[in-house]
Structure formats: structure tokens, C-alpha cells
């Protein structure tokens, strides 16, 4: 069955044939939504699947089975949903869950998008897949590509955290560090893809990235909204926002479920941005959809973006679901890294930003005690150890004797 019907521009509504290699609308540059024929899909096809990965949702994805059994490509997704009761108690919440995306093969949410993009690249018989990245998207592409022998080229700003660059290199991608910002690397990747005929994975540009990311919404539906651990009341989801593609992808997933008639009520989506990188939030607060570039400055490198490439859909994700946007400081983010760590979850700054946003929402009365909440941790703290060390006190150094140890303990 041909599940994908075509592409539709999210701005002007122009439609395009699915067989064309499309990225954005030719008329106005708007992000493209992939239109799917889901009429023959049943809940049993999903819930009875033995797949413990995002590929359990293959009937709802616009790609064919990519193969790669027994590789990390088939292990992306189906991440755990934890219930940290001590955090819930501290915030005065009855129901709090954290979806931990650091459990993905390359330790971030971006594995979802890269797995689906690599599947599409294999369908297109693309020789090279390229992306711009501050680290996570590149590592995800490099890892998923390595799993199936696909060549990958990654352009990253030279300021990317060393641990993330190490991942890119270890996975065997061709890594090029750009002496500029993420946005500079993004634009250069577009030029290179056109010049060399590469398939471009860029976040908020390739429509298959949102299709991969929507699988997080499908998992939340299956893990929390189908009776296994039924949330009491309308769900609220907090997610950090940089380019805007994660929150728009999650929105797409819930919209697909709603179109199928499987979702009783649309969860409210809350985007969290760093104060120093708030282009999407600024548009939301203005009441419009115009994304005005900023000069991004935040320690949360994964959400440090001057010009979000999926900003309009990210604004709509909050507005159309009755959610909102919340700004947090870098100090708030570091405090959230430390707080999550005390529950056994090691979040990178971008992932901790979502929790910092929840803290702010509770403090300001945006979230009431009885409202159920899911916070999405988008990546592992091991990806940015330098930032993590700013969040906690330094370890004490002592002489190797019991008296020295006693002085410290007492």
C-alpha cells in the first residue's frame, strides 16, 4: 500500500507529488507536511507489534521497511517513560512523567529523525546524506548511517561540544567544522547538497525529520493514553525548542492519531526556549507567526539557533493545542540538570530546559497540581560534560586516609 499521498505546504497549501525529492515549498519556502493515507491502519497493527522501537509505527510512517535488523537503526525510539515521584512531590504535582530520549542509540531524540531519513535515503538510493548540526542531529545521522553502510557528511560549528564531535568521528562520518554558527553550517549544507547532489537531512528542512520525531507522540499515546498507565485529565507536554522541529513533529503525531480517531483529547504542547535563543517564543508572544532571527546565546547548544527553520509550525503546535511558550535562563537550565540528576536522569542542557520550563510553569500557575505532565529529556548529559560540571559542586580531593575521609563526611 502506498501510504504517502504527497506533500502539502504548511503556509500556502500548495501540494506536490510524493515521488519528487522535496524539501520545502517551491512557492514560498514553507515547511512541507507529508500527507498520509491511514484509512487501512488499525490500533491492533500497532499495539500487537513485537518491535521495541519506533519501527512498530511503520504503518503510520511514509517509508518502507528499511531493513538493518540487528543494528542500531532498528533500536531507535520506544524510550522509557519514568515516573519520578520525588520530583512530582517537590513540585506539588499528582502525575509527572519524564520521557528519557537519552536511551536512544546515539543518546538523543534526534535518532528518531535520522532513522527515518536514512530509510528514505535508501529508498532514493542516495549516495551521500548530509546535515548541519550542533552535534546531536549529526551524531544521530552518523550512527544510523553507519549501521547500514550509508555515507554521511556532517557540517558542525567549531564550537560544538567535544563529546558530540567525538561521536561524529567515531561513527565514521566525514566531519567538517565550520568557523561560524549553526546557522552558517545550515546554509552551507544546503549549498553543498545542491552542488554535489547529496540528500539533505537538515532539521526543519527535510520533511521526513518531523515524521521521525512524531513517533515520540505515538509512543506517549501508547504508553500513557491507552489504558496502561492512564493519565488523569488532559495531558501537558513540555519540550525544549530550538529549530522547532521536535515540537512540530510531536504535534504532527498527535494530529495523525486524532485523524485516525484514536485520540480522545489533544495534549497541550508547551515549548521551552532559553532566554538567549527565543525566536519562536518571541513570535508566539507577539500573537503572530513571523519568525524574526536573533543572535542566539545560550549554553544549551542544541537549542541555540538564530533563525529557527521550523518556527511557524512550532508556534502553531503550542497555539493550536492550547499550550504555550516559556522562557528560562541558563541558570535555570543548570539547576534543572542538577535536579534531574538526583532522580537518576542525566540530561544535557537542552533536555533539562524542558524541566526548567515546567518548574517555571508551576511557579506561575500555568500548570495546576492535578494536571498530568510529561517532560521530554531530549539528550544525555554525557554529550556536554563541561556544562554538566557547571551544574554541580566540584568533587572534594582528600589524602588517602580515614581521618581525611571522616573530616569530609562529618
Word description of this protein:
The chain has helices spanning 43-47, 85-91, 110-124, 136-148, 162-170, 182-196, 207-213, 215-224, 245-260, 279-286, 311-321, 330-341, 349-363, 385-390, 402-409; strands at residues 4-9, 15-16, 32-36, 81-82, 96-100, 128-132, 151-157, 174-178, 199-200, 236-240, 268-274, 324-328, 373-377. By secondary structure, the protein is an alpha/beta fold. The strands form three sheets. A six-stranded mixed β-sheet has the order 4-5-13-10-11-12, with helices on both faces. Helix 12 (330-341) crosses helix 13 (349-363).
Low-confidence stretches: none
Sheet with most strands: strand arrangement: 4-5-13-10-11-12
How far is the first residue's CA from the last residue's CA?
69 Å
Determine the mean pLDDT. Answer: 95
Secondary structure tally, helices: 15
Shape: globular
Q: Give me the Rg, rounded.
A: 21 Å
Q: Which class best fits the helix and strand makeup?
A: alpha/beta
Major sheet details: 6 strands, mixed
Query: H/E element string?
Result: EEEHEHEHEHEHEHEHHEHEHHEHHEHH
| Helix-residue proportion | 25-40%
Strand elements, count: 13
What fraction of the residues are assigned to beta strands by DSSP? 5-15%
What are the SSEs and their pairings?
Blueprint: E1 4-9, E2 15-16, E3 32-36, H1 43-47, E4 81-82, H2 85-91, E5 96-100, H3 110-124, E6 128-132, H4 136-148, E7 151-157, H5 162-170, E8 174-178, H6 182-196, E9 199-200, H7 207-213, H8 215-224, E10 236-240, H9 245-260, E11 268-274, H10 279-286, H11 311-321, E12 324-328, H12 330-341, H13 349-363, E13 373-377, H14 385-390, H15 402-409
Parallel strand pairs: 5-13, 6-7, 6-9, 7-8, 10-11, 10-13, 11-12
Antiparallel strand pairs: 1-2, 1-3, 4-5
